[in-house]
Amino acid sequence: MDLLDAPLATAEFLAVDTETNGKGGDACELTEIGTVLVGGGELHDRWESLVGVRAPLSRGIQRFTGITQAMVDEAPAAELVLPDLAELIGSPPRRVLVGHNVAFDRRVLRQAFERAGLEWPDPPAICTVALARRFAPLVRQRKLAALAGSLGIDVEVEHRALADAETCARVFCALFKRLCANATTVGDAIEALKPTRRRTQKPKLPRRARLDLPDFGDLPDTPGVYIFRNAEGQTLYVGKSVRLRSRARAHFAPSAPAGDWTAQAAIVDHRPTQSELGALVLENRLIKALRPPGNRKLKKVDPYVYLRCRFDIPFPILEVAPEPAGGHAVNIGPLRGRASAAELKEQLDSLFGLRHCPRSLPRRYSPSVYGQMGRCLSPCLGDLDPNLYRRRLDEALAIFTGDGDGGAALLAHVDAQMRRAAAEQKFERAAWLRRRHGRLRVLLERLGPFLRAAHTHPRLVLAPGPEGADLFWIVGGRIVDWGPRTTAEDAVERTRAALRARADPYVPADEVAELRIVSTWLATNEPPALDLSGPPGDDEIAAFVAAPVERPALV
Questions:
Q1: Sign of dihedral through CA atoms 63, 66, 70, 76?
Q2: Residue 15: its pLDDT value, please?
Q3: Alpha-helical segments (H) within 251-385
Q4: For residue 552, is it within any domain?
Q5: Does 555 fall in a domain?
Q6: Shortest CA distance to 153 belongs to which of 135, 136, 134, 172?
Q7: What's the pTM?
Q8: Cβ 507 vs Cβ 455: under 8 Å
Q9: What pLDDT digit, counting tens, does each position of 158-184 carry?
């Protein structure tokens, strides 16, 4: 019997999840597979395996999935793993594949089978996203963990193949009865989950004639910034992309939203860069200089925040904000996750006796709860020496403004305080500090591998591109020089000039946006960087500039 004609209620399903190296196209490689056998609305056998890869894993994907380079180095090759998966599916297929966004898993598996020289069983598939859209329409969040939570399913581990496959299987079982009520066979179920197209009469908008389009012939498909101008040469819009021609043309696609400036665009110019970071920086500077009417301030979409301290008020406070502060301030970050950053702020406030209240200092006649517990110096009472408070604040900030890792320095500070309290037989405080130490260790692992103030750690960054690379000299948290990768002699001379500049550690207000752009890109991509706080020798600079780098794929 054809599997599509099999009764849905008695069919067997194989919930599957794949983890990859995070790359697209032909560079995508399988790193882990997990499957869970489902039958009769219940979970049965489980199977998982790591898979060896040819190209090294990036540090970002290792942190995201928890799958390290050492793990895949010891894992069997795909040619040894995939036959076991093919046996679980059957040939011809005897089990239906179930996955969350199953089209992605099918594409990854098919590519892995073809690369290994094996025949892909090509089983029918059911997507739990489509299942939730059809039978749980009130659930707005359809990511796997959020969807599972809305159905009362606990999720303890994410982004590992077997754990995600089991969560997917439980979501499928939770909605299986509703699927059976609307479909008799496997084929009926797949047909019922296909998206329905609403045939609504939309007003036809006049399409722009091809003769009116700007000439895109001179635009390369490499990183850079494109500039649209009207017939008089006035700037209308500035954009950036890692593929200039494709992105610039997309503004005039039939599906693109109509904009006032597109009707006036007659000329398109471009300025190439060697990397995505170069395009981001150049776009920001051109928008600031040209103020094109087509560019509007976009909402912040990245997950990073900053722990900052502004010295413009008496008894300054630590605060968590999406943007670094300009002027006389210290910015720590970027930090991943507002909740974790807010908890770090509370921990620092309690450890050093800093204010927990907002910027406006309320006048009180008795200590707050934190003051009564000895976790705040209580400047609100009006009798605190400002110098004492500032010494405590400077002690807290010094942890993150030194040359090393602020997270490690903070743990060392708490450990020293704990040992001192124990030596002084203050055992309750020592126990409190011990609990803080354990919590801070977990918290710092979430926030990132290296915490420090943005204006510290001068460095030379090599930002790779598809065909070249840009060099960025970052001193005082700001870009003091940048350009395409150059000769060793030129790099040495520019490095010395950048260090002689001795940029002011406090970032001007008009450079805050660039600081956030650079910091976020560096935290996300982790490019090669040379520490300049030494400073390094000429040979070390030359070797860094000449070293080969892994080039990102154009997407």
A1: negative
A2: 93
A3: 276-290, 338-352, 369-372
A4: no
A5: no
A6: 172
A7: 0.56
A8: yes
A9: 888 899 999 999 999 988 888 888 888
